[in-house]
Amino acid sequence: MSTPTRSTIMDTNSFRSEHAAGLDPAARGLTQRRERVLGGSYRLFYRRPVHLVRGEGQYLFDADGRRYLDLYNNVASIGHCHPAVVEAVTAQLQQLNTHTRYLHETILDYTDEILATLPAVPAPGTWKAMYQCTGSEANDLAVRVAREFSGNLGVIATSEAYHGTSDLTSGFSPALGSGQPLAPTTRLVPAPDAYRQGLPPARLGPWFADRVREAVASLQADGFGVAAFIADSVFSSDGVLPGRRGFLAEAVDVVRAAGGVFIADEVQPGFARTGEEFWGFARHGLVPELVTTGKPMGNGIPVSGLFAREDVLRAFSDRVPYFNTFGGNPVSMAAARAVLRVLREEGLQEHALEVGARFRDALDALAVAHEAVGDVRGVGLFTGLELVTDRSTREPDRDLALAVLEELRERGVLTSVAGPHGNVLKLRPPLVFAAGDVDTVVRALDESLTALGA
């Protein structure tokens, strides 16, 4: 039996047993306890795992009181332990928490507010909402709906995509590694990576549409047809590839012409992350048939959602009852409402656009001094920094990227890597990341690259 390929999102920046000797007794004891009682599929970040005990805004604090700047976390998207979320959840917990088979106003109030952020659908259509607890559940349901609507089975995703851990979603999440086989109804297309493909920005859309067209032909030839193309519109697991506004539209047209739908997985690019738009797909002038979200929706409280065009959802909901015990519960809905309110009141979308642009300008300046920086790309507060052994050949430098992560950790900055080669620093802080934090990160990167001779 062949050894499974390591998962790019789970194994690339992970603690392994051979690192235990370098830990202090307290940390070693905790890792040993984990090994005794938790399943072997779990992973820890870093060769010296961080023992976190508290969070506040864009900062995390370990058991020794050391502060870290969180450059990775879109779960606590409006900042760790935001008072508005804490207060909303506490108040609701003191009143009631139950499921959606009883009447309750909070789920309806939230739904009115979130659906108002979505683009208009062709008249007389409208949007409908269904709630779950995780992005995996939302994407699982979205594909079930797409299959009922289209009458087809095939799903198209990108070559390093991650869309969930359920039996269905793991079948089109290649970032989980070869130990998790893809479904026979899945077709993968290369990520729209203009840097690595050597494409001018204007050619990226047609090139990507051609790859999707090939996947459509393969699914049709095997009798599966096309149910859906699912994509995170910043292609974060593929290496943070937002591309130019609008480039994705041509590929979506190809899918629709084949009878399929577009599922916009907004777990990564949604909720003001891109700065340019509230939703990532909106950068491309698209109106998806199905929109899914999760992590940032509740700022750490488990809640996710499927927002569907009514005509698409009806093919499923008119035939199949659906119930999720904890999906849409009053406590989660209270958290979600608080997140929306904070995004508006604190102007975090505009903040993401402004500070993100400043961040990438500073990284571009850093690249002048460090030949190992091959590319800086991103949108809003989502940035990819690609490290290479040689700028002319663009040879990816995974070892350097992992070493930089460890150096950054020692300098109080936490992040991780993305992309098929594990050489792209995935810089995705909470949306309260400030202008002063830019200087902190760039200084830590400069020091880390210098220490490593890069």
UniProtKB/TrEMBL annotation:
MF GO annotations: pyridoxal phosphate binding; transaminase activity
Classification via InterPro entries: Aminotrans_3, PyrdxlP-dep_Trfase, PyrdxlP-dep_Trfase_major, PyrdxlP-dep_Trfase_small
Record bears the keyword Transferase: yes
Annotated keywords: Aminotransferase, Pyridoxal phosphate, Transferase
Keyword Transferase: yes
Pfam families assigned: Aminotran_3
Domain of life: Bacteria
Protein family according to the UniProt entry: Belongs to the class-III pyridoxal-phosphate-dependent aminotransferase family.
Protein name, per record: 4-aminobutyrate aminotransferase-like enzyme
Species of origin: Kineococcus rhizosphaerae
